[in-house]
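Review box. Two proteins, two foldings.
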Amino acid sequence: MADRIWEHRTAEVTLTVVADGAPLVEREVVLAQRDHKFLFGCIGFEFVPLANDEPAAGPELARLAERWLDVFNFATLPFYWGQFEPERGKPDTERLRRAARWFVERGVPVKGHPLAWHTVTADWLLDLSNAEIARAQVDRIRREVADFQGLIDTWDVINEVVIMPVFDRYDNGITRVCREQGRIPTVRMVFDAARDANPKATLLLNDFDLSTAYECLIEGVLEAGIRIDALGLQSHMHQGYWGEERTLAILDRFARYGLPIHFTETTLVSGDLMPAHIEDLNDYQVPDWPTTPEGEARQADEIVRHYRTLMSHPSVRALTYWGIADGGWLGAPSGLVRRDGSPKPSYDALRSLVKEEWWVAPTTLRTDAEGRVRFSGFLGEYGITAGGRAATFRLEEPGPMSASISVGERRDR
């Protein structure tokens, strides 16, 4: 697996360093990685109060944000319609814009999740006809995608379409529309609205159902000529780690569509596992779900194995962990940080991968007689300095490459 990671995620670089139009010959330069191309993501829901200077944003939250930023480079923010616009015409736009800007100012791109979903949708839709619900959904998508353009240019456009028309836990407007017009017309409706609002956006189809039903949906969507930019696969492993073999088999099944894959929602618990007989994870409601020392050791091992597996597959472009801290969805001990703010072994293990094993720390190299240095590095952004001059560059594709970089004026002048 290490060989596959190296093959798909690194470049073998011959870099000519130039200053004032001439190669820098026999000179020391310092090379350092600044960011990964791979999107190591995590939800940023809990930092919305911090970005808005709200009373709930105390020093503990600021420290948690520091831990978040030390590992992750891709954030997901919440756009659940029922929470974003509980009263029609009064969306929480400015609050979420400030949150998105907070991440972007720290060099973190943001994804919005989700634009259309039958769960946590707006209750006021139930007062409308199906045609009115569809129009409201389209208007909502156009509004959000346009309002956040430049801050959020990646969206989970529609969530869990496989179950959407047959969802029967409670009545909701989105299921009504999807049941009436069908899955593929619904997907077309929402993707067309998002694409019209921001033609350059990256738009995802996302689902937890990784059975052949999702494959049939994807095939139908693509055959209908609907453009999908990436496929979202959820992996909430509250009932136990899938293992390398199962994960790779899933990846190979969905990679055949030739689309980038995002693992959009990943969790691994550090306490007791959810019983295997539970079909809908939401049905598991316990008053307390603590983390345990044994569970934390297991979680750390599984985090490393899961990330290595996904990094070894060339189709995977992003992995979003569903919550840095315990106590999130279902109250599960699925975070990388305990409720008291202390890091679990899984946090340290993941940081060791992202910022040590898969990272080029500041390294001093010496150019040769033609001004060249050679190095191997993980894809992403790099900085190079030479005698007070500096420049940045990116490694975008794996394998051998040659390039020239011109360092700018001396900083100490």
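Next protein.
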Amino acid sequence: LTNAASEFASYPGVHSDASVKEFLGRFPLPTILSALQSEAHVPEFETALVSCLERIFRTKYGTSLIPQYMSFVRVGLQANSQMVRCLACKAVSYLLENVLLVIIYPLLVNCLLDGNEPVAAASMDAIQNLSRSPKGISIIFPNLATHCSSVARIRVLALIVKLFSVSRSLATVVCKSNLLGLFEAEVNNTNDMLMTLSALELLYELAESPHGTEFLLRSTLLQLLTNVIGNTSLDPTLRSRAIMISGRLLSSVKTGLLTISRRLQDTDECETAFEALGQIGDSIQGAVL
């Protein structure tokens, strides 16, 4: 099984449904899943089976089999093995319309919050795909909340950025769900510089999205950014990033513009302030200001 799985996974091309059926005819899916659960402690064996299953689930035929093995997906999302959890997250991403996702989603969030980077990325992609359906939106937002771990909070913020960029309607749901309040809390909390800087970096990405300015200006983030810019006791890196974000948002807000202008006298931040003013001037309203 190990050799066959490795050979199947290393095939350079895209597997067809026919090739998947042929492989599963020799090694039925229950046999592979059972072997994975019983021998997951053997690294090479686990790698071969996980890679093989991932190639299987990518095909239309393989995806059609997943609903029959949702019990495995649930167990996989809670597995100790990061590779198995990552595989389970990817399997979920193919099941956007499956009603069982209501049960699976909390486990998917757990993978986002406490999995390693590949697991978190896979779960984030699955949640983003899930958000594209009306049923998915109703599942996601009531369950998304703050968590104590700084890594978990950053991952939640990164997920918000991804969800925000999917569509204007989804951005509206994000705002109505008060998820931008998570950004406000992190920007307002300057006790943890690295956490605040990470939040500002993600906020910068959010400001770049097609609907960024429209929705962010409705929140208190603009005032919070202004406070950061004007607080000379903060690290210049934080103030510079706040200036750049404000430069994207402040095309019609004179208060923020004046705050940035004051930083022109600071040699450390002068260049960043000029760049921000240049971005404001790119718009007609900004040029008038």
